């Protein structure tokens, strides 16, 4: 049973460079989420997809950030022109939203190990 | 003011102690409440979830929700050194309504 995987696990970049992160969700999960977590804080929501459709974006997701999930499987998060304030752990989560409502079902999100970004 | 408030600690207890962790929230629309455990440099791991008010028990862990007070708690009985981690509360507005709202986490250390 493979969980959510993220690549790379660590990324160090210089200010102004572009970076791209990849997330592979649990197979058959149709929802995929991106969160950002800074030191000493809880994760903050960035965006989420149901299949390939991006359903919600946070105000935190400035125009330098873009996320895609082209075939409804893996997702990429790109940050253009990185700034030191972008240094954080970027977490991906996935869940299964059933087609039909299930009694007692909750949209349980399973998290990956994260990608730690350091912008110098 | 953040929608979910959680005391960051740190909290340090001896092995075997009962640990009480809690969060308050301001949005009365929240209906689903979760507790995640996060070890250093790892992703959060779901411990428990609870719908609306009430208690839920799972082994050494008990989650309580009091919607009238907008207050949730996690109790850990017979705490172990392996329970040392950061505990995050999280919540959302409905069973299929996506985004989670997290507290900032409480750092717990259980010493032998």
Would you kindly provide a written description of the structure presented here, covering whatever features stand out?
The complex is a heterodimer of chains A (120) and B (112). Chain A has strands spanning 5-7, 10-13, 19-24, 31-37, 44-50, 53-57, 65-68, 75-79, 88-95, 110-111, 115-119. By secondary structure, chain A is an all-beta fold. Chain B is built from no helices and 11 strands. Chain B has strands at residues 4-6, 11-14, 19-25, 32-38, 45-51, 54-58, 61-66, 71-76, 85-92, 101-102, 106-111. In chain B, strands 2, 4, 5, 9, 10 and 11 form a 6-stranded mixed beta sheet that branches. In chain B, strands 1-3-8-7-6 form a 5-stranded antiparallel beta sheet, with no helix packed on it. In chain B, a hairpin with a 6-residue loop joins strand 4 and strand 5. The N and C termini of chain B lie far apart (37 Å). Chain A binds chain B through residues 4, 31, 33, 35, 40-45, 48, 55-56, 58, 91, 93, 97, 101, 104-114, 116, and chain B through 4, 6, 8, 32, 36, 41-46, 49, 51, 88, 90, 92, 95-105.
List the helices and strands and how they pair.
The complex is a heterodimer of chains A (120) and B (112).
Chain A: E1 5-7, E2 10-13, E3 19-24, E4 31-37, E5 44-50, E6 53-57, E7 65-68, E8 75-79, E9 88-95, E10 110-111, E11 115-119
Parallel strand pairs in A: 2-11
Antiparallel strand pairs in A: 1-3, 3-8, 4-5, 4-9, 5-6, 7-8, 9-10, 9-11
Chain B: E1 4-6, E2 11-14, E3 19-25, E4 32-38, E5 45-51, E6 54-58, E7 61-66, E8 71-76, E9 85-92, E10 101-102, E11 106-111
Parallel strand pairs in B: 2-11
Antiparallel strand pairs in B: 1-3, 3-8, 4-5, 4-9, 6-7, 7-8, 9-10, 9-11
């Amino acid at each position: 049973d493979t969980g959510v995987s993220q690549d790379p696990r660590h990324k160090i970049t210089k200010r102004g460079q572009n970076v791209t992160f990849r997330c592979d969700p649990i197979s058959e999960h149709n929802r995929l989420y991106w969160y950002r977590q800074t030191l000493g804080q809880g994760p903050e929501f960035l965006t989420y997809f149901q299949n390939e459709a991006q359903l919600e974006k946070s105000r935190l997701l400035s125009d330098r950030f873009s996320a895609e999930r082209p075939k409804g499987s893996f997702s990429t998060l790109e940050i253009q022109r990185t700034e030191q304030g972008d240094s954080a752990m970027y977490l991906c989560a996935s869940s299964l939203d059933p087609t039909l409502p299930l009694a007692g079902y909750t949209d349980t999100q399973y998290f990956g190990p994260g990608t730690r970004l350091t912008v110098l | 003011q953040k929608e979910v408030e959680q005391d960051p600690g740190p909290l340090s207890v001896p092995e075997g102690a009962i640990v009480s962790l809690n969060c308050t929230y301001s949005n009365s629309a929240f209906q689903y409440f979760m507790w995640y455990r996060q070890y250093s440099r790892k992703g959060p791991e779901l411990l428990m979830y609870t719908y609306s008010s009430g208690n839920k028990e799972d082994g050494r862990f008990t989650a309580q929700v009091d919607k009238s007070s907008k207050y949730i708690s996690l109790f850990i009985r017979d705490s172990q050194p392996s329970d040392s981690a950061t505990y995050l509360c999280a919540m959302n507005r409905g069973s299929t309504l996506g985004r989670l709202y997290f507290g900032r986490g409480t750092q717990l250390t259980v010493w032998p």
